[in-house]
Design brief:
By secondary structure, the protein is mainly α. The protein has a domain at 25-120. It contains 9 helices and no strands. It has helices at 6-9, 18-43, 47-64, 76-85, 94-114, 126-149, 158-166, 174-190, 199-204. Helix 2 runs parallel beside helix 4 and helix 6 (126-149) packs parallel to helix 7 (158-166). The longest helix is centred in the N-terminal third of the chain and has 26 residues, at 18-43. The radius of gyration is 20 Å and the shape is globular.
Length: 205
């Protein structure tokens, strides 16, 4: 019987580090539950699709990436970009449109990998990435403020939605606000304890 190719042999768990690998992987898997659900909400689809992405992404990515140091997971930046691209689709049509968008993005990534376009990322400075991620964070906070406080959101872009929420306090739901703020406080407090790796999941539950 011929020996298995090196790529296949590399998938076999290393008994010497199996326990350490499990300890390192379990917190990441647990944390991906609330992150995946949140990403799906940002796109505007059922949160269960975020769970599917959180499961399929690391498996498929783990078999395809060229380094073990790469983390394959959902990101808020990609979720916002997808949500913006699908903004013209209704809620019923959005899952199918998201599937097509994901397939097209995958094809473009394969093309970029074959042509080795990844080398151009070295020209993106840290200050540009910092500004981009800061803008994403602000956009998420302003865009989700209405959901946090249980207030209807109207207008566009996110800053207009947040302004309308804050200028109409009578439309806020005290129950929704109490639950949302309590979850945030719980997550912050637990992040300073020994169970910091599962703080977001506990807050979600």
């Amino acid at each position: 019987m011929r020996k298995a190719p090196g790529w296949v042999r590399s998938l076999r768990p290393d008994r010497a580090t199996l326990r350490q690998d499990a300890v390192a992987g379990v917190p990441g898997a647990i944390a991906s539950v609330p992150d995946g659900m949140a990403s799906a909400v940002l796109v505007g689809v059922n949160p269960v699709y975020g769970l599917y992405a959180s499961m399929a992404g690391p498996i498929g990515g783990g078999l395809a990436v060229s380094t073990r140091l790469m983390v394959v997971t959902t990101t808020t930046a990609a979720a916002l970009a997808a949500g913006s691209a699908l903004s013209s689709f209704s809620g019923a049509d959005r899952p199918e449109a998201l599937f097509v968008l994901s397939a097209l993005a995958g094809v473009m990534m394969i093309v970029a990998g074959v042509l080795r376009w990844g080398r151009f990322t070295r020209f993106v400075s840290v200050s540009v990435l910092t500004g981009f991620l800061s803008g994403v964070a602000v956009n998420i906070i302003l865009g989700q403020l209405g959901d946090l406080l249980g207030s209807p959101q109207t207008g566009s872009p996110a800053i207009v939605k947040a302004f309308n929420v804050m200028t109409h306090p009578s439309e806020m739901s005290l129950t929704a606000a109490a639950v949302g703020v309590s979850a945030l406080l719980l997550m912050v407090v637990l992040s300073r304890t020994k169970i910091a790796s599962v703080a977001s999941l506990v807050a979600l539950a």
